[in-house]
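User: I'm writing a tutorial on reading structure tokens. Could you give me a worked example: one chain, its sequence, then its tokens, then a sentence or two explaining what the tokens reveal?
Assistant: Sure. Here is the example chain.
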Amino acid sequence: MLIIEPTQSHAPNLVDPLMQLTCTDSSLAMQPVFKNFRSVIITSGTLSPISLYPHLLNFTPKISQAFEMTMPEDRGTILCPLIVTRGSDQTELTTKFESRDDPAISRNYGDLLVNLSKHVPDGIVCFFTSYKYVFWMLEREGA
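And here are its predicted structure tokens:
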């Protein structure tokens, strides 16, 4: 889809056209992924209903599993999304592919989890963007 706007919202009186190309068919973006990889795992906390996504992305799942998540009302708030942009040594925390080999980033993610776990009594669930981060954490903890 091609979207052309004659002006931009921050300067409506200035003629400064904005042209955007937009992919509105997510199955087109996923075709190379399904073509180039034997196993693809799609996971999210918001893929609901899960039965809709094979149709939208044009694939046939081998296994499809949805897990119910319950929030006990008597425990108060148990989820706390956390957005962190810098580590304790002010290293920028990023998951960019180009930065995956930076030991300072791995160290800062690990330190963040270790420090958080000292204050969270019932445990932490963490999604790692790379096995490299998981292995670093395991090595750090001697597991």
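What the tokens reveal: DSSP finds four helices and two strands in the chain. The beta strands are 2-8, 11-21.
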